[in-house]
Amino acid sequence: MNVYKTINKRHSYRGKYKSDTVPREDLITIMKAGLNAPSGCNKQTTSLIAVDDKDVLKKLHKVINPPVGETAPAIICVLTQRLPAYREKCFAVQDYSAAIENMLLAIVELGYQSCWYEGHITDEDKIGYQMAQILNVPDNFELVCFLPVGIAETEPTLPKKRTFEERAWFNAFPNNQNESVP
Ligand SMILES: Cc1cc2nc3c(=O)[nH]c(=O)nc-3n(C[C@H](O)[C@H](O)[C@H](O)COP(=O)(O)O)c2cc1C
Q: CB 3.0 to 4.6 Å from 72: which of 14, 81, 82, 148, for a disulfide?
């Protein structure tokens, strides 16, 4: 598949996964794709923990409430260090977002599905923090997202997206464009 096809094929998958294990080799390929993403001032603030051990997955899913991605045979947890990159500017969010997108594309390219679970684990209930505790993550790292990895049982549901013409232009912002975002 070429990269453009993979980009268009990627969608958030929230259905059930088949129980087939994900080979370590594939998990490493996916993680390397994430770590090869650009980072502000090359600070490389993103780190990753893949979990494919059933007992550890069970412990993690005990704290992921309401449950999401619980049937996936593996997950990749995304850790960040909120370090200054340029003067006082921190690019940690941009760094881990680039890493996540690279991994989502690698996941689809290898025939798996996933979903970017960040909102779900970074609310006041601090699920991400609880997951970090289970994984022995030191306090100077924050667990901000996890990606299930596995073979999907069904197809992802396609979300409604605004058209190209509503969101992208050449040379200037169009005069007649309503600026509000739905
Ligand atoms: C920063 C960020 C946080 C997200 N957090 C969640 C989440 O917690 N739960 C979820 O189901 N999807 C989450 N998503 C996935 C979005 O809902 C999804 O990308 C969006 O609806 C568009 O659908 P698509 O990925 O199929 O294009 C998140 C996406 C991003 C970029």
A: 148
Helix, strand, or coil (residue 89): strand
- CA–centroid distance, 171 to ligand 1, in Å, is 30
In the CATH hierarchy, which fold is given to the domain comprising 16-150?
A: NADH Oxidase (3.40.109)
Identify which of 10, 12, 125, 157 to mutate to test ligand 1's pocket (most ligand atoms within 8 A of the CB): 12
pLDDT in tens, the chain (182 residues): 699 999 999 999 999 999 999 999 999 999 999 999 999 999 999 999 999 999 999 999 999 999 999 999 999 999 999 999 999 999 999 999 999 999 999 999 999 999 999 999 999 999 999 999 999 999 999 999 999 999 999 999 999 999 999 999 999 999 876 655 65
Give the start-to-end residue ranges of the domains of the chain: 16-150
Residue 103's closest CA among 20, 15, 36, 17? 36
